[in-house]
Structure prediction request, 124 residues.
Amino acid sequence: MDNKADYFVRESVIVLGFLSGLWIAVGIDPLAEVFKALATIINTLNPDSGFGFLFFVIPIIILFCSILGTYFMGGKLGLVAVGCGFFGGLLILISPIISAILFILGTGVGIVAVNVKTDVELGF
Prediction:
């Protein structure tokens, strides 16, 4: 596996897909908790600042940029790989076997997606 495929699988399929689904399945969103703590600190220090809206918008922007980066790196097949990873993480408490199959499928599709995107240079 080359560096680009390895990076794509680690960052997109595992982190963006699988771990995001796992956090939803467990019921915890670490990014939201961090931003909630930061918003509480900012509001304690300066209650009249308008930063509350900023802490609502930043996670949405981060998610949008992550999905856009996934698309540019792996194309439509890369989005399918991340979707497989996401549903693998989401279903881990319900059916670990299906979760493992989806995770392995997402990892394999992610490797293929980067190689196909690199070799053929698929466009929009």
